[in-house]
Fold this sequence. Notes:
2 copies of one chain form a homodimer.
Chain A: H1 24-37, H2 50-57, H3 61-73, E1 77-80, E2 84-87, E3 96-98, H4 100-107, E4 112-123, H5 126-132, E5 139-149, E6 152-162, H6 173-176, H7 180-184, E7 191-202, H8 205-210, E8 218-228, E9 233-242, E10 248-253
Antiparallel strand pairs in A: 1-2, 4-5, 5-6, 6-9, 7-8, 8-9
Chain A binds a DNA duplex (19 and 19 nucleotides) through residues 23-25, 49-51, 59-63, 65-66, 68, 79-85.
Amino acid sequence: xxxxxxxxxxxxxxxxxxxxxxxxxxxxxxxxxxxxxxxxxxxxxxxxxxxxxxxxxxxxxxxxxxxxxxxxxxxxxxxxxxxxxxxxxxxxxxxxxxxxxxxxxxxxxxxxxxxxxxxxxxxxxxxxxxxxxxxxxxxxxxxxxxxxxxxxxxxxxxxxxxxxxxxxxxxxxxxxxxxxxxxxxxxxxxxxxxxxxxxxxxxxxxxxxxxxxxxxxxxxxxxxxxxxxxxxxxxxxxxxxxxxxxxxxxxxxxxxxxxxxxxxx
Amino acid sequence: xxxxxxxxxxxxxxxxxxxxxxxxxxxxxxxxxxxxxxxxxxxxxxxxxxxxxxxxxxxxxxxxxxxxxxxxxxxxxxxxxxxxxxxxxxxxxxxxxxxxxxxxxxxxxxxxxxxxxxxxxxxxxxxxxxxxxxxxxxxxxxxxxxxxxxxxxxxxxxxxxxxxxxxxxxxxxxxxxxxxxxxxxxxxxxxxxxxxxxxxxxxxxxxxxxxxxxxxxxxxxxxxxxxxxxxxxxxxxxxxxxxxxxxxxxxxxxxxxxxxxxxxx
DNA sequence: AAGTGGTCTAGACCACTAT
DNA sequence: TAGTGGTCTAGACCACTTT
Lengths: 265, 265
């Protein structure tokens, strides 16, 4: 019943299997992706029009649209109303480095332990006050932690938290804190958004000592600010680590390994 | 004609304007995003079912689906078949750092100039041969360039290119090369995919001298391999720069500034 | 005018989850 | 069994581009 017209039983892999359970629009996207990969359409070239694809694959226009949308989201094709759909060329600017490796480390509860180095109330200095949008001298919680992966120092974390006297600090919270969910995958319901910035830095003496690395050493500095639902900053801080702890890699262009759309993390 | 039933002229901003030209599914996504932002739904809470939304906003199920899909793509909600749609909590692992700033620099032809430091045929060493998947000792093109932004050294680029004797090297190509399109936005039709890796490094004496920076200095190392449509590596190399040349920042969670879907780069 | 992508409808049918 | 999200149809209508 899935044979193409003509009655031949020749196996065609560029054909939709309606029994497979995989959505048609994904099957179609994979078919087109394979065709591009095989060189049937080169960057800059035009794909068949949606009307043509509707005829070729015997699906509804809406389904073709979903297919094209999917490919467009994945930066494989671009669409131009009135002109057509075209294969995109690889551009380095579309590269994205994700922190999922970072999260993996933090959610591995067996391997990762948190060592509290310091936690105290401090009077905020100018910079901290500016970041947390409070007045200089107002008290804030200052926490320093060392995160060990398989008992090896991996991340040094400094953090300034808004101090709310109505919510007394529970000792045990300091090692894990509000932010735990941000890494473990649960997420904090109190945080609305965050801003992150990454830089390469030279380690200070103290940082090198804490991370047990000889000087001079270079590493990554990952700054974060988190905001609550009133758009007020609640946490400002940074992670410092050796580059090999946070290897950032990505790929651009066609990658047939991401056959499925279910690669959300 | 756009008044809600009851004849009242009270202005409601959480209402769909069918004359606005903006697609309904985007308007609806913005409305829901604003409601989440305003605290109407908190992370972990369930959104109204799609059937409810169909009734509330008088649109078809398909349109609601597109809205929910859009919010899911933007990591704002998550869907679970049979259970419902839920507001997502902020998770640091969803952060993505983009190289669009990198591309901006390279496509600004007025500000950016390329200075060729060295270009010659070399016999490949073990590492280069491995990366380019060729035999050790086979000739390759080795190019070193300095990219200046407003006449200041910004990026130091080393690159190994497959040498194809059938295509003689044109002198003038060396300063711009095949890869130009990768940055300028045109893209190369010969490249199918690329792999990128980023690290923090200590500058060598040579690198510091070229980038006119005192030692010791830390910077970013961006390695790239590009593949052609035969999945053969054609270029392996790396960019080295000071961290401030490639500031990497991003935000996670709700961000009302990305109202439109048209923020592709 | 003909062809292109883009949105939207008003359902049908299915798979999954809870009760 | 009732409610949920997920896919798909077979069109209609629109905006835009090219000829």
